[in-house]
Design brief:
Blueprint lengths: L19 E4 L2 E4 L20 H12 L10 H18 L14 E2 L3 E2 L3 E11 L2 E10 L7 E5 L12 H12 L3 E5 L13 H18 L3 E11 L1 H12 L5 E5 L30 H6 L5 E6 L7 H4 L1 H10 L6 E5 L8 H14 L21 H5 L12 H10 L10 H18 L16 E5 L2 E9 L5 E9 L6 E6 L5 H5 L7 H6 L3 E5 L15 H15 L3 H16 L5 E10 L3 H13 L3 E7 L22 H5 L6 E7 L3 H13 L6 E5 L5
Parallel strand pairs: 7-8, 7-9, 9-10, 10-11, 11-12, 16-17, 16-18, 18-19, 19-20, 20-21
Antiparallel strand pairs: 1-2, 3-5, 4-5, 5-6, 6-8, 13-14, 14-15, 15-17
Helix pairs in contact: 16-17
Length: 677
Amino acid sequence: MVRGLWVLSIPKARTPWNAVVRGGGLLGCVIAVSSASVRLGADEPARVAPKVRLTEYYRRLSEPEPIAKLEGEPLRAHQRRIKERLLRVTGLDPPPKRIPLDIHESQVLDHPWCTVRRVAYRIWPRVYATGLLYEPKTGSDERLPAMLCPHGHWAEGNAHPDVQRRCLFFAKLGYVTFSPTQNHYEDLNAGVSHQTVMIWGNMRALDYLESHPRVDPGRIGVAGESGGGLQTQMLVALDPRVRAATVVGLTCDFREIMFIDGCHCACNHFPRVMQFTDHPEISTLGQPAALQFLTMNDWTRTFLENRFPEIQRLYSANSSADRTECVYYDTPHNYDRPKRERTYAWMERWVNGRDLGSESSIAEPETEPFPVDVLTNLIAAAPEDLGFGEIGRIYRRERSYSMPPLDDPETRRTWNDAMAGSLRELLGESQRLPTTARAGNPTTEEAGDLRITRIDLPSEGNLVVPTLFVRDNAPRDRRPVVILCGPQGKDRGLGESGTGSAAERARSGALVVLPDVRFIGELAAITDAGPAQQRNAWQRNGIVWGRPLPGMAATDFRCVIDGLAECPDADSGKIALVVPRSGDLAIGALFAAALDPRIRSIDVDFDGASFANGKLPIVPFVLGHGDVLQWTALLADRQVILRGAPADAAATAWLEGVFAHAGNRDGLRVVAASPSP
């Protein structure tokens, strides 16, 4: 429980922090944060700036996960658990149905070493991916090894000259080589991340290679750089068909590609992964598949020294010491010729079974790649293709929430318990840090007929919620509590006037609480990058942590309520949460109320935002359980005003029925959002 609040008056004279003060015949008190007396004055501890606290919080949640030190069957069991969780968090459990590939091909280009064509293949119903197929020129009927070569974030994609050179030479070495196009698409609220599309797309690319009449399905390797390295790492981790892999310029701790005020490519941000693993461990899940790392002067620069020894020990302890290597190159971020030559040797050894003796590289001869536009203009038309947006529509159709009749108490109680449990998981409640911060020293000032007190209230970890308490000067034993939170922050909110303002509510006898929850007011901008960019960075990082923005805001709201417990004039049975015209804050408030029965009423304005229309902060997988109206059903025993909710007649009727069956028909008021012009 949070301590360190005050009631009614704080005298102008300085007093010990744990003193009890009487003024005007009414009890006013300052309650000790600890048993030690803290003097206000020269020795008063300096306030730790919110940006310092947020930076430390960011570091705590970004700490890397170690690789499990296991052998034999315990290791295999651990790897199975990690793989199962990876498939769940990437939306691939249950897996999509393996439907026929329905291959479509472009015209064929001729190269001295091979033929090249674009191939389209079906990955979901009416959704196709494409790639470039390099087929060796050999008259033999013998089955050939195969290579999958995903590419990184080059502007030219798999038509980049260096990607071409790699694929062309693999074909010259006798590999049927396929370079799938890197596809970006996400609908995280429905459970589709970029990794959902990339992993499944690459598994389907392996299906295509296996189905090729010239491919030996027992000899398939994968090699990719940068974003292609991420694809390679995820594929070797999750698909046992990969015999050997080369990961170039990717594997590192997640924290190396996370930033407090910016984002790396969004394909790195898939849900909840840092709750249970990190990139280095993911890369080992395909063990005993042969695993090569090529690192350089980018985010992988310290991998050889800091993380690869753990991987070496794991492989050595499980009789695979020679099946992994890491080579550092003093180069920028690229997949240049020396790295490619190291890759060729690795694949010849572990995929093709060729004894190279002491040779660790195979020289790549000069060749002329195709002009970029020649490859990009190759078309493999798939008339039924609806594009990647269809993936989100499929997930929303097949994995969406239901609205069961909740017409008896037992059914409603069972549903509520299940929904509340799902909400705790969605918001990452298990990742909530134990509180270590203390309440700050309060300061009070008079503003006409109002008294305004400022204090930092402890939240999770070392975080605090900068908060204002506003009261009138009238003697009152108990005051209903109104927590008023707007997107402009507490200080600007305090300056507003008129009906519904903090000042008017306080003059009417309420104890008005204005908190700066994450990420508004004092918690909005902690670097020079600006609030919008930082909010996006926290949103993307929260996806990886499994701690989405509404979960952070809900925690802060609930911690503010914890602070009220030591406030004698606060009527704890009359706590209302009010959010005007802010979907971001409204959903945090709604979720706080769903998890905290101390909040007896809410009046929140979603301003037309919902999870379905993508205008609320991202909560991965939330639409598998409910949208705004479905989550509101958890409050059927409270007073709810839901403003600006997207119009949904069926869901509104269902929600009204839930409140009616709970004996609280008058407890709900839904004000639909105005239609967009």
